[in-house]
């Protein structure tokens, strides 16, 4: 039960992070403005914010890590 919940959460965060990464790269993002239900839209935006946060944190972490370098 908890294992499954953990996997579901991990997958959801990963997908959110990938979407945030694509947004950084191409400016493309899910068309949340087309969601008519205001509550749903709010939650989808919150979900996408998690991905942004994950990407930001990863960038800070990698920036401070010796295992990553900027391509010249
Ligand atoms: C990466 O680290 C350097 C030095 O600590 C800092 O000046 C720079 O703003 C950081 N860049 C990012 C994208 O966090």
TrEMBL record:
Residues of the signal peptide: 1-20
UniProt entry tagged with the keyword Signal: yes
Pfam families named in the record: Mitofissin
InterPro entries: Mitofissin
The entry's keywords: Signal
Coiled-coil parts of chain: none
Protein name: DUF1748-domain-containing protein
Organism whose genome encodes this protein: Mucor flavus
Classification of source organism: Eukaryota, Fungi, Fungi incertae sedis, Mucoromycota, Mucoromycotina
């Amino acid at each position: 039960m908890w294992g499954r919940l953990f996997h579901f959460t991990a997958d959801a965060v990963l997908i959110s992070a990938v979407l945030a990464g694509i947004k950084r790269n191409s400016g493309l993002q899910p068309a949340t403005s087309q969601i008519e239900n205001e509550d749903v839209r709010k939650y989808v935006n919150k979900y996408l914010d998690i991905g942004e946060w994950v990407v930001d944190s990863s960038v800070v972490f990698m920036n401070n890590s010796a295992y990553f370098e900027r391509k010249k």
